[in-house]
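4.2 Preliminary Data

To establish feasibility before requesting continued support, the project team ran the inverse folding procedure on a target of 956 residues. The structure was first converted into the token representation described in Section 3, and no sequence information of any kind was made available to the design step. The complete token record follows.
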């Protein structure tokens, strides 16, 4: 059997060991290599010749102009016939020369690959070295006997498909290649190090034992430790490591000729009466699932990108990361140690595609595959065992139940009793120290919190064991497109019950790829593939270029480790640290303009405690006044500077005194045109055609939005779009039933209804005008059987209730007083804060990779739209409204599949909504809990000229 199809994890590879920073000579073999792509497996050794080109290592050939990337969610892009691969098996030959100085220690040298996807064979100077599988794991080969001083030739043949691929069916791009570093290491004199550094929270002391080469000297200068391997050193006082205070001690392990540098964190994790604790306190994960992704480099991430991820996580109040669904680049875990994140390190195993055989042949349950699986577990644990940040080993993702997991768990527990073991998908949880689920509805989570959940296994002993386990929400809140909604609800439930130890949002970053020369991010289906996962991998809290999406801003708000509530209580929700690293600042605004500010005297608040304070006293006023209290960092940290905001809250001190905008001005009849206040109307259609000197068209009832991924649901399940379309909401026609000129205004009576159906909406626009402006009251009355009959489909909600207005394109400067600065929706609005903001229409757009409804600002009291000269209008809402403005229509947005499909039209389209349906998480999870009911609605909008211009004299 061919080596890339057999069930041998590797041939010729060394035993796995820790990733060490050593003083021994090393040569990086990263850089430019020669490359040739074959569409099936060639024979013989790679020899550079015709048809070869350059390739950057680390890298994926499919992102460097050879072949193209492929995305599937669960499906294997080849027939399920384990362990065989198709004849078309793209194979990349990589070759490079490198020089060894005459005095370089060749004897016993090791060639180390940090990650090669998915199987490979190595030659050095024509001699065969070995083979390996396991894409996201290191492999080492002894090559000393093949090396020589001077020029050396290294050749690596990489196969995209292998038996290993059956274990690597994660929901992500298939990206073959040598995508992590390649290094030549001089023979290690210290082969391995295993640091055990525990912390006793009762005494404040620590114990350090370092297993390594006999005869080595272990030093921790700061603690005055000089010791030998295997001997526990008791330390009377150490500062513990935690994600909140990632205290590390520099240490060395030395033998003559080699020094290994370590950074040690003292911490103890333990399961105490069904609660997972660190340093004696229950842990609570504010987490995210992170794939390795770079829009141009795929999984060949730079260390800068890794650091940026972690800095952003820390700045957004996250304290935990699950390395979904494979061990990350080893440098990432160093950074987690340094910056402070709890880590669930997940093994490179997912056999998800076997759902299509109803799990027949699942490797996880086939003893023949146990060696391949155990090999992966060992390579992860051995590589990563010295990181204090890693507190949980995850066996795999979504591979159903399988006996092999028993072997993996048993090996892991005996090798490393100092950490917990996790596996979500086996509903008995036999091999896991945690109970866990993905995407449960809130009710199910609540039931788990109260230990009243349904039985998950008929085996009563396993069931009883599971019921005693703590719960981790492995994945929730699918951040696909616009969303997720409901983060605050989940956080409330997670925090309510001690059994629930936090959760991990799916997922960190959109996997959109920018291919050489392209401007649009690609996703599944963009290459005409028949089998693909569409845009299901565009589901991150970061856009592909690593800028935070509104979902991350919302998550930061709901995760706040310090809560400012009531008037005025400060709660410290941290586990280990007080509030003395924070400063509390307040400010008061009147109509959005700051009128007063100061610093709050806050006593030091211990973790878990709270303090009640006197709110600052300020003057009162006629306009709305809002108090904002913010907690900011008092000093610079490794991940943010002093002044970085950690938490905030707002309190409306006084509502604005309502000014009546009565009628008074008469309608002036000019034949085809009617004038009222600053508005001019078409007599036949009743449409507003001019508003304070600007040519406009509208307003028209708007019930439709460009469906979001979460509106669409997953494969037609849970989605609302289907129901909305069936009710004709995407094809509404507007009929004018009458334009009535009254003594004190104008009434336009209409009926808005879908083609082909009997339901409709009576919509009346009542216009009045006074010196205070032009006022519109919209009255919306559903008619017919929206709730459903034999012929009319059931429609339980509307996307939105608002009016749309077409404006001149020059009115691109938007100012508003209300929620901002970013977008907000009914179930994703915690991060929206009341203020005065200014943006251009272009800047109001949220650049979702797949265009969809976006950009609404909530709780808007007033907004103005003006041109460069300041001409335009201002609109005030009662109740407050939602503001959306764009250069294309909702229908354009709906049609677009990529951002470049959106071409600005000659107008701006302004939608002023009373409300919109929530977002939810139905693209993979439950729908929104805040639906917009099909019901009568009334709302009022008052238009005035922008700036200080007077309301009259628009028609001299
Ligand atoms: C989970 C899976 C993830 C991802 C997610 C949806 O079931 O573990 O890998 O597919 O759903 O995006």
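Position-by-position output of the design step:
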């Amino acid at each position: 059997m061919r080596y890339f199809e057999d069930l041998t994890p590797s041939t010729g590879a060394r035993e796995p060991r820790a990733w060490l920073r050593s003083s021994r000579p090393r040569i990086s073999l990263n850089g430019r290599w020669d490359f040739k792509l074959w569409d099936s497996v060639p024979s013989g050794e790679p020899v550079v010749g015709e048809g070869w080109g350059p390739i950057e290592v680390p890298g994926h050939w499919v992102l460097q102009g050879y072949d193209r990337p492929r995305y599937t969610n669960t499906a294997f892009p080849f027939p399920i016939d384990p362990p065989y691969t198709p004849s078309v098996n793209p194979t990349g030959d990589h070759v490079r020369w490198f020089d060894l100085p005459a005095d370089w220690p060749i004897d016993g040298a090791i060639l180390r690959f940090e990650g090669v996807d998915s199987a490979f064979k190595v030659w050095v100077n024509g001699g065969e070295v070995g083979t390996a599988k396991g894409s996201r794991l290191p492999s080492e080969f002894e090559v000393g006997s093949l090396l020589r001083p001077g020029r050396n030739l290294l050749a690596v043949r990489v196969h995209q498909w292998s038996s290993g691929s059956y274990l690597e069916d994660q929901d992500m791009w298939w990206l073959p290649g040598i995508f992590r570093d390649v290094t030549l290491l001089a023979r290690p004199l210290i082969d391995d190090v295993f640091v055990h550094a525990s912390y006793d929270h009762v005494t404040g002391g620590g114990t350090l034992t370092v297993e390594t080469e006999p005869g080595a000297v272990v030093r921790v200068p700061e603690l005055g430790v000089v010791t030998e391997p295997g001997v526990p050193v008791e330390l009377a006082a150490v500062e513990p490591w935690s994600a909140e205070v990632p205290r590390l001690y520099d240490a060395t392990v030395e033998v003559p000729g080699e020094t290994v540098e370590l950074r040690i964190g003292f911490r103890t994790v333990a399961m105490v009466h069904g609660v997972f604790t660190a340093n004696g306190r229950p842990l609570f994960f504010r987490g995210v699932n992170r794939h390795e992704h770079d829009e141009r480099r795929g999984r060949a991430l730079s260390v800068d990108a890794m650091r940026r991820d972690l800095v952003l996580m820390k700045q957004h109040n996250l304290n935990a990361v699950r390395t979904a669904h494979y061990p990350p680049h080893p440098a990432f875990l160093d950074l987690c140690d340094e910056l402070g994140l709890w880590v669930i390190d997940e093994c490179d195993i997912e056999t998800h595609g076997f759902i299509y055989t109803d799990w027949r042949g699942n490797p996880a349950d086939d003893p023949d595959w146990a060696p391949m699986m155990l090999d992966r577990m060992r390579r992860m644990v051995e590589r990563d065992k010295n990181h204090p940040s890693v507190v949980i080993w995850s066996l795999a993702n979504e591979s159903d139940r399988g006996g092999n997991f028993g072997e993996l768990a048993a090996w892991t527990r005996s090798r490393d009793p100092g950490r917990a073991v996790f596996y979500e998908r086996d509903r008995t949880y036999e091999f896991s120290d945690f109970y866990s689920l993905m995407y449960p509805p809130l009710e199910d989570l609540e039931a788990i919190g109260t230990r009243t959940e349904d039985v998950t296994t008929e085996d009563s002993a396993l069931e009883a064991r599971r019921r005693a386990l703590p719960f981790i929400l492995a994945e929730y809140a699918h951040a696909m497109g616009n969303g997720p909604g409901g983060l605050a609800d989940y956080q409330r439930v997670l925090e309510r019950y001690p059994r629930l130890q936090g959760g991990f949002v799916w997922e960190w970053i959109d996997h959109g790829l920018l291919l050489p020369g392209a401007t649009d991010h690609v996703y599944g289906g963009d290459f005409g593939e028949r089998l693909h996962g569409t845009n299901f991998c565009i589901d991150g809290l970061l856009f592909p270029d690593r800028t935070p999406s509104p979902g991350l801003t919302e998550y930061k708000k709901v995760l706040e480790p310090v809560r400012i509530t009531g008037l005025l209580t400060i709660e410290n929700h941290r586990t280990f640290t007080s509030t003395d690293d924070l400063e509390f600042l307040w400010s008061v605004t009147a109509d959005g303009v700051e009128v007063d500010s100061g610093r709050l005297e806050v006593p030091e608040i211990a973790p878990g405690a709270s303090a009640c304070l006197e709110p600052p006293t300020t003057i009162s006023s006629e306009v709305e006044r809002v108090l904002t209290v913010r907690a900011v960092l008092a000093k610079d940290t490794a991940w943010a500077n002093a002044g970085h905001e950690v938490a905030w809250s707002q309190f409306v001190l006084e509502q604005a005194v309502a000014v009546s905008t009565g009628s008074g001005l008469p309608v002036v009849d000019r034949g085809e045109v009617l004038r009222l206040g600053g508005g001019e109307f078409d007599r036949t259609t009743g449409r507003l055609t001019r508003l304070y000197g600007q040519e406009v068209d509208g307003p028209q009832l708007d019930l439709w939005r460009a469906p979001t991924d979460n509106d669409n649901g997953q494969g037609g399940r849970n989605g609302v779009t289907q129901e909305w379309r069936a009710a004709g909401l995407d094809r509404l026609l507007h009929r004018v039933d009458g334009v009535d000129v009254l003594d004190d205004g104008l009434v336009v009576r209409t009926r808005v209804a879908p083609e082909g159906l009997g339901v409709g909406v009576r919509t009346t626009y009542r216009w009045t005008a006074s010196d205070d402006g032009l006022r519109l009251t919209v009255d919306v009355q559903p008619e017919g059987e929206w709730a459903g009959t034999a012929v009319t489909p059931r429609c339980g909600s509307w996307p939105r209730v608002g009016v749309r207005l077409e404006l001149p394109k020059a009115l691109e400067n938007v100012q508003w007083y209300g929620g901002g600065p970013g977008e907000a929706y009914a179930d994703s609005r915690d991060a929206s804060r009341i203020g005065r903001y200014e943006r251009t229409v272009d800047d109001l757009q949220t650049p979702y990779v797949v265009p969809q409804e976006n950009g609404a600002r909530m709780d808007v009291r007033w907004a103005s739209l003006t041109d460069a000269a300041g001409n335009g209008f201002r609109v005030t809402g009662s109740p407050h409204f939602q503001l959306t403005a764009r250069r294309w229509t909702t229908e354009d947005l709906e049609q677009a599949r990529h951002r470049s499909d959106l071409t600005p039209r000659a107008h701006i389209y302004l939608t002023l909504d009373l409300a919109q349906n929530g977002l939810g998480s139905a693209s993979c999870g439950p729908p929104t809990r805040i639906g917009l009911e099909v019901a009568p609605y009334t709302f009022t909008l008052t238009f005035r000229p922008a700036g200080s211009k007077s309301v009259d004299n628009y028609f001299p």
